[in-house]
Design brief:
The chain is of the alpha/beta class. The protein has three domains: about 60 residues, no CATH class; about 180 residues, 3-Layer(aba) Sandwich (Rossmann fold), CATH 3.40.50; about 80 residues. Helix content is about 45%, strand content about 15%. The strands form two sheets. The protein has a seven-stranded parallel β-sheet with strand order 4-3-2-1-5-6-7, sandwiched between helices. It starts with 8 loop residues before the first helix and ends with a helix.
């Protein structure tokens, strides 16, 4: 974000229109009015200067990042994480480069931290045109790599929390290569949000080169200590899929959106959008095999698509009363929907 001279002429006109207008609930103008109301409240709440600066910086970072991503919303993206310390000759570096290249050929873009190591490798593979860099301002180790440096899709963040929000909001998949605490932080963030339903279902892919024991030993530890100790639910670990083959990993990511399009909570139900309608036999199958997901009734087609906020008539829709707890089973349902399209 570059500093620029602020011109308040148009701002004063826009501000006057927003403050004096009467707007319908949920419109842009009503939301802008509400935001201005909250800004005015700040002056009354006697916050410390450092707290107001935090709010201002976070808002500016999010506003600018949303602006950069907006032209690319129609292109699917994978958030790729891994160590910044992986040297160029390391087999994980070559593996990440191969993965980035193969995913880009499927029409996907990648989002990384924009630094060296695994992040640079994936960007070399995908190419600068297919890459976003969300760089965190640190005193060490996080300078932008040559692939993305100077690119308009390189965004700098002061705060980790604004950066992490953009990683999740703007991606449709999470990919983890071997890494340190930062990689695990990002991975657990995605896993926790999907596991609790605070984020929409997505592929969470763990990748390391053939012969590596990095993720195998990590998953063994999780299963033994977390699942075995009753600290997570049985099946939660199935939300993560481990691959040592780049083609299979790309197939897992792209295939997740084969027939499954998207989903959301819809009034008291859960709505799943599909690229193709389900045959009657599949409806019978999911009503038989996934009864544990439903609190009452069964899986049904949404009769009136005008009730959906995405009204694309080419999409099919099913709804059900979801128990809101078994998100690993929801992922298994998506697998069936993808394998059984008409």
């Amino acid at each position: 974000m570059r500093n620029f001279k602020k011109d308040f002429t148009q701002f004063r006109k826009d501000l006057s229109e927003i403050l004096e207008g009467q707007f319908s609930e949920g419109t842009f103008e009503e939301l802008y009015q509400d935001m201005l109301f909250n800004i005015a409240r700040l002056r009354q709440e006697n916050l410390d200067l450092v707290e107001v600066r935090l709010l201002n910086t976070a808002f500016k970072e999010l506003r600018y990042a949303l602006k950069v991503f907006k032209p690319y919303r129609a292109v699917p993206k994978a958030a790729v994480f891994g160590s910044a310390r992986t040297p160029i000759h390391h087999r994980s570096f070559k593996f990440a480069e191969k993965f980035g290249r193969k995913l880009a050929k499927k029409g996907w873009m990648i989002i990384t931290g924009g630094a060296s190591g695994i992040m640079e490798a994936a960007m070399i593979g995908a190419g600068a045109v297919n890459s976003f860099g969300l760089n965190i301002l640190l005193p060490f180790e996080q300078d932008a790599n040559p692939v993305i440096k100077g690119n308009a899709k390189l965004i700098y963040f002061k705060y980790f929390f604004t950066r992490k929000l953009m990683f999740l909001k703007e991606s449709e998949a999470t990919v983890l290569f071997p890494g340190g605490f930062g990689t695990f932080d990002e991975g657990f963030e995605s896993f926790t949000l999907v596991q609790t339903g605070k984020a929409k279902p997505r592929p969470i892919v763990l990748m390391d080169p053939p012969g590596s024991s990095f993720w195998r030993s990590t998953l063994k530890l999780f299963k033994q200590n977390m699942e075995g100790g009753g600290l997570i639910s049985p099946g939660d670990l199935s939300l993560m899929r481990h691959f040592q083959d780049a083609d299979r990993a790309v197939e897992e990511i792209a295939g997740f959106y084969g027939n499954y399009h998207s989903s959301r909570f819809f009034k008291d139900q859960y709505l799943v959008r599909l690229n193709n309608p389900l045959p009657p036999k599949v409806f019978k199958r999911i009503n038989r095999e996934f009864k544990d997901l439903v609190t009452r009734g069964g899986f049904e087609k949404l009769p009136d698509i005008s009730q959906d906020d995405i009204r694309d008539p080419k999409l099919d829709r099913i709804v059900f009363y979801f128990n809101r707890t078994h998100y690993s089973r929801l992922r298994q349902l998506i697998d069936v929907l993808n394998s059984a399209s008409g």
